[in-house]
What we know:
By secondary structure, the protein is mostly beta strands. It contains no helices and 10 strands. It has strands at 6-9, 13-14, 20-25, 32-37, 41-44, 49-51, 56-62, 67-72, 85-91, 94-100. The strands form 3 sheets. A 5-stranded mixed beta sheet has the order 2-10-9-5-6, with no helix packed on it. A 3-stranded antiparallel beta sheet has the order 1-3-8, with no helix packed on it. It has a two-stranded antiparallel sheet with strand order 4-7. The termini are far apart.
Amino acid sequence: xAWSTGIYVTQPKYSLEQQVTIIIHNGENDAIGLVDVxxxxxxxxxxxxxxxMIRSHMAKMLDPxxxxxxxxxxxxxxxxQVPTGKYVVSWEKYKAAFEIA
Length: 101
């Protein structure tokens, strides 16, 4: 399967405290820059940013047709487990929805 450029999660539903695996894929023929670390943001169903609030600015290049993995421990910026519910992880114009149940 050829993936398009975008952000993905490995499953639509995660158990409480289960690590969420986030994939950013470059389906283009040129490298793309991932400027912030992490380059993605997680929002809850109320469209509030849950993680991260602060990013470091460092560039990472993602080669054509390659992916990079990130892992989120379901904790907010204070290190507290987020509640069950629906969430969206986004990177630039791309989004992936998932649920914690």
